Structures are given as C-alpha cells and as structure tokens.
C-alpha cells in the first residue's frame, strides 16, 4: 500500500520537475535564425572555397610561383602569369578555380609561401550549371578590394 | 440583457457563441504553435500578420476552399455527420456557460448536468467518424477514444458531485456567485472539504483526457494511427474536428475555472466581468498546452491504469471526505 502512494508521489513530483524544465526553456531566447533575413556568422575556421587575400599595395600577394597549382591533388587550380618588359617579377594575370573538383583539403593554402591564399566564408553556393562553380579568383579579389 | 425581445437575445447569443468558438479555435491554434515553438526554442508562426496572429485565419481559408472527398466504401451519412456533431456539441455546451453576471444564454438550474450530458456526446461523434470512414486506423482510434472517455467520465463526475455537495446547486452562475474573492474559491481546502485541491487536479486531468489532449491523445496517436479518427478527413471536415476539439478544450478549462477558480469573479472582489473568465480560462488552456509539449504520450494501459487505479479511488476519497466534513461541520 505504501508503494502505491510512493509511486503516485514520485510520479507527481517528476511531472512537476518536467514542467519546470520546459518552462525554463520557454522563457529563454530562441536560437533559430530567420535564414534569408538573418544569417549565421561563419566561424573563423570555416572552410569555404579558397580566395586570394586582397592587398592594399599590389592588389594581391601572389608571386605566381605555382606552388598551389602543383600541390593541388584534384588539379582544380589554373594559374596564368606573365613577365612584363623590364620587370623583375612575374605578375599574376589569371587565377581560375574549378570548385566542382575541389575537396577543400587546403594544401594550396598551406603551401603558399606568401600567404596570398585563404578560405572564404562563402556558403550561399547554388547554381544550375557546372560553369557556375568555376571562379575567377583574380576578378573576385579586385572586386573585394573596391 | 433581459429587456431585449427574446428573438434578438437568442440571435445575439447564437452569433456571439459561434464567433467565440471560431475565434477561440483560431487563437488557440496560434497560441499552441507559439507555445510549442518557444518550448523548443523556436519562434513559431511569425509571417502572417504581427507575430503571425492571422496565420490560423489563412489556414482556415485554405481548409474551407478544399474539396471534401468522401472515401469509397465509407458510410456517407455517418462520415458527413461526425464533424458536424462534434462541432454541435462544442457549441451547445456554451449555452449554459456564464460569461458574466448577466451574460449567460440560458440560466439553467441544472447547467452543470447539461454540460456533461452534451459534452459526452462528443465521443459518439468520434466513434461515428472513425467507423464511418472505413479505415482500420480510424476504427482503432475511435474505440480507444471511447474506452478513454468512459474511463475518465467516472472520476470526473464523482469529483463534480463532491463540488456540487458543497455548493448545493448545479446552476453555474450561482456557483460563481458564491466565490466572491480569492479566499472563497473552491480550489482552497478551507471552503468545505480539505481535499478540494485534489478534486481540482482530478478534474483538470480528466478534462484533458476527455478532450483527447496530450498526453492522453491516444485517439490521434500520429506515430501509430496516422491521424486517428480523422485520418480520412480533409478540408473543412478536418477543420470542424479541430474547431470542435479546441471548443471542448475551452469548455473544459472554463468549467474548471467556474467550479474552482471563481469564474467571472475578480480575485480581489473588484470589477468582475467576462474578462476575468477569459483570463482564467486561457491561463488553464496555456497549462494544457504546456503539458502537451512537456510529456510524451502515455500508453493505452497506462492511461486506463491511471484512471481506474488512481483517479477513481482518489475521487471516491474526495467524495467521502467531503460528505463527512459537510455532515460534521
């Protein structure tokens, strides 16, 4: 008989505790974001596709050494450079990233001797054609400088 | 309102009660979704109107514009009658609910009895809907709803009998009139019987089970029975079931606040009126929703055990103690 009353008492107590927990959750601030209008701030170590880091003086820090292109296991980086008349250094004239092949391993970023490459925080990537994912990073870099 | 001709009085009350049932359903759905959202730390509806308050209206228009498909081999009469019947019982119960000192459609002296007499017809509507739609899930759900309603009617009526023994009347307006301030509410143990708080708890739990609300919503256990007795209903057939369900929830909570929490009386005894009944009722409705989003659904055996092994003995104890205390003091 005492077991009967103890069960009822314990049951009622656990029910009240449960109600308390949900009430606490109810008055806490909501955690969802209204996506198109609000967006999550990406974490500093988020890996989007790679991007050339804009530089105040020369546009970018790339010395066109081709390390990233050679290190890329998927072969998605195509670099173009030329040496202008009388200049000592090569100048980058085109940097094409084929993001459809990229596995985001980051070897290009690691191997870059001048830290000219970085991961972007871009995640709104949706397209209808494979060509939508071939990025001209030099052009992006110019746009970001402006 | 007694100086008005009878026909206008009737029309005003019919219109008012229908509007209340409709608005109550719209508001309750919105409130339920908001409460559910915030308990799960979401936002809930927010796009249609300020704070999403017109969302239920938009849903209602959608439901009304949908075609009502009668499934093949369904019983056409029962299938069509069931949603109407659940709505009719929900509306008819409002006839004796006192919203204010003079704001009651029919001031019956057996009002309390009428509420239970009509509200229990609702289970017949569920049975008709489940049986009539020729669907195995709907039939299982309907039988569950019936056994549940039978099981919970017993303790509910026993507790109500003990309250009636204290009040000495079944006229709901008189019962409210007896509870003029907070100290005279029948939820407190010094007003006739020391087990009155227990009586309120039993009544509230039974009201939740009678209206098929979670955690007692075995009738529409989505994980097992698709959608229960309204599996085959679409459009406004489903809409009427919904209107009826929220109407019954409102009536259950209004009755709890009339019997135990002083109805339209102010806790401090000033400015009584319809607003106090609405505040108390919607507080209880909120508790019902809060409970729904806290507890998981019980099993059928757990539900019947709770009724026959706990609620019935306790309600009998309330009855005996109340009778003894009334006799002695």
UniProtKB/TrEMBL annotation, chain A:
The keyword DNA-binding does not apply. It comes from Desulfurivibrio alkaliphilus (strain DSM 19089 / UNIQEM U267 / AHT2). This is NADH-quinone oxidoreductase subunit I. Its EC number is 7.1.1.-. GO terms for cellular component: plasma membrane. [4Fe-4S] cluster 2 binds at residues 72, 102, 105, 108. The keyword Iron applies. It is found in: Cell inner membrane.
UniProtKB/TrEMBL annotation, chain B:
The chain crosses the membrane at residues 12-31, 81-104, 110-129, 150-170, 190-209, 246-264, 270-291, 303-326. One of its GO terms (biological process) is aerobic respiration. The keyword Hydrolase does not apply. Its EC number is 7.1.1.-. Its main location: membrane. The gene is nuoH. It catalyses: a quinone + NADH + 5 H(+)(in) = a quinol + NAD(+) + 4 H(+)(out). Pfam families: NADHdh (PF00146). It is found in: Cell inner membrane; Cell membrane; Membrane. GO terms for molecular function: NADH dehydrogenase activity; oxidoreductase activity, acting on NAD(P)H, quinone or similar compound as acceptor; quinone binding. GO terms for cellular component: plasma membrane. InterPro entries: NADH_UbQ_OxRdtase_su1/FPO, NADH_UbQ_OxRdtase_su1_CS. NDH-1 shuttles electrons from NADH, via FMN and iron-sulfur (Fe-S) centers, to quinones in the respiratory chain. The immediate electron acceptor for the enzyme in this species is believed to be ubiquinone. Couples the redox reaction to proton translocation (for every two electrons transferred, four hydrogen ions are translocated across the cytoplasmic membrane), and thus conserves the redox energy in a proton gradient. This subunit may bind ubiquinone. It comes from the Bacteria. It is a multi-pass membrane protein. PROSITE patterns: COMPLEX1_ND1_1, COMPLEX1_ND1_2. Signal peptide: none annotated. Keywords: Cell inner membrane, Cell membrane, Membrane, NAD, Oxidoreductase, Quinone, Translocase, Transmembrane, Transmembrane helix, Ubiquinone. The keyword Ligase does not apply. NDH-1 is composed of 14 different subunits. Subunits NuoA, H, J, K, L, M, N constitute the membrane sector of the complex. Belongs to the complex I subunit 1 family. This is NADH-quinone oxidoreductase subunit H.
């Amino acid at each position: 008989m005492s077991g009967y009353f103890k069960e009822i008492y314990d049951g009622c107590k656990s029910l009240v505790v449960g109600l308390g927990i949900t009430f606490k959750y109810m008055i806490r601030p909501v955690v969802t974001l209204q996506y198109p209008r609000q967006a999550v701030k990406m974490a500093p170590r988020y890996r989007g596709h790679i991007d050339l880091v804009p530089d105040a003086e020369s546009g970018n820090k790339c010395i066109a050494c081709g390390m990233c292109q050679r290190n890329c296991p998927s072969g998605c980086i195509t670099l173009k450079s030329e040496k202008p008349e009388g200049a000592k250094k090569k100048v980058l004239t085109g940097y094409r990233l084929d993001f459809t092949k990229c596995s985001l391993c980051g070897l290009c970023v690691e191997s870059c001797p001048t830290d000219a490459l970085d991961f972007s925080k871009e995640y709104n990537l949706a397209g209808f054609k494979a060509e939508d994912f071939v990025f001209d990073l030099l052009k992006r870099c110019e746009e970001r400088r402006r | 309102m007694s100086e008005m001709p009878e026909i206008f009085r009737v029309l005003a009350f019919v219109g008012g009660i229908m509007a209340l049932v409709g608005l109550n359903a719209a508001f309750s759905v919105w409130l339920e979704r908001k409460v559910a959202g915030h308990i799960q730390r979401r936002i809930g509806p927010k796009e249609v109107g300020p704070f999403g308050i017109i969302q239920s209206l938009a849903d209602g228009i959608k439901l009304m514009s949908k075609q009502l498909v009668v499934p093949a081999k369904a019983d056409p009469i029962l299938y069509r009658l069931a949603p109407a019947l659940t709505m009719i019982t929900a509306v008819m119960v409002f006839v004796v609910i006192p919203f204010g000192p003079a704001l009651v459609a029919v001031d019956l002296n057996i009002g309390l009895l009428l509420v239970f007499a009509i509200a229990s017809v609702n289970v017949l509507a569920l049975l008709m809907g489940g049986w009539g739609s020729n669907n195995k899930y709907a039939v299982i759900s309907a039988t569950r709803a019936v056994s549940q309603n039978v099981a919970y009617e017993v303790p509910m009526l026993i507790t109500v009998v003990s309250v009636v023994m204290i009040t000495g009347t079944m006229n709901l307006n008189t019962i409210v009139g007896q509870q003029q301030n907070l100290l005279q509410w029948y939820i407190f143990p010094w007003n006739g019987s020391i087990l009155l708080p227990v009586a309120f708890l039993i009544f509230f739990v039974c009201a939740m089970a009678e209206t098929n609300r979670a955690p007692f919503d075995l009738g529409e256990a989505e994980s097992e029975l698709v959608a229960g007795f309204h599996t085959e209903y679409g459009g406004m057939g489903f809409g009427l079931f919904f209107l009826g369900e929220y109407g019954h929830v409102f009536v259950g909570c209004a009755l709890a606040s009339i019997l135990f929490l002083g109805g339209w009386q102010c806790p401090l005894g000033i400015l009584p009126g319809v607003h106090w009944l609405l505040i108390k009722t919607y507080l209880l409705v909120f508790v019902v929703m809060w409970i729904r989003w806290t507890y998981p659904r019980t099993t059928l055996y757990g539900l019947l055990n709770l009724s026959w092994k706990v609620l019935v003995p306790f309600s009998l104890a309330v009855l005996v103690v109340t009778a003894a205390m009334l006799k002695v003091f």
